[in-house]
Amino acid sequence: MALIGGGGAWIRKAKGWFLEFRLIPVLLWSYTAVVLGTSLAAWTTGGVDLASFAVALGLGGLIQGWSTHSINEIFDWRSGTDRIGGGRALSGGSRVRNLSLLDVLGVAYTAPPIATAYRPFAGEWFGGFPGVLLSGLGAYAIQTKSISVVAVIALSAHALVCMGMLMVHHYLDAPMDAAASPPKRTTVVALGLPKAKKYAAGMAAAASILYGLLGVLGYPAFLLGMAWTLPAVWIHLHTKADELESVTRNELRVIQLGIAAGLSTAVGLAPSLWPLLPIAAVAYLAHLAVASPPAALSRAWRKAPET
What we know:
The chain is mainly alpha-helical. The protein has 13 helices and no strands. 70% of the residues lie in helices and 0% in strands.
């Protein structure tokens, strides 16, 4: 709570580093992927090597949370796409530069000449998707010293959920991305909002199918993943992609459903991992507390009372 109020250079730096980590996206992408991969390994081997799990979780968080996010911050700030402030909860960068909390240093996966985040379809399929997939498969492999078809399918399903969330994440940024220098031609910018919504819904639907397939092939825990993912298809299609409140609230809904799908499946496979559920809930609320978005944006499942 002390971080929220500010009051001193070290507090501002600490708040900056916390926001730069972007804990809520990390919970969906790295945390859930690693937990899901570890639970599959536990189902296969009958136990969890806690030291190996800690290594996988630490690497996943480090690579996504600070390496990828802070580096991406540099190039999005330089191009101009993140320089506009406003009451967004998750998109538009971490806003550590807007708030003068940190002088971000590093090199980004958005760096020329590859710059996958600045090219349509490349950002998700050559950056995000393999990142999530390999994060979860790495957690599985470090436990079992092998890779299985089931693990590949399960982590692919979770990666598709994350890619759908990424589309929603880019809706509000589309005007700034298109006007940036160089232009950030995300898939949303290239497709336009109506087609991007269908594209996101299609990825969520594909994820539901993969979860369901595993569920009927002898892994009933994955039916939980399907049940939590199916509502995201409707949410994607009914998001008003040019409205701040609709996009923000529905992005949070998609994130909550994605975390629930992965973690509920994980606990179904390996009940001993249940403490990871309250840890995720506390971390989620901590990010919102420090980011301090307006109540109408942070309360995903109900509207704020009229004032």
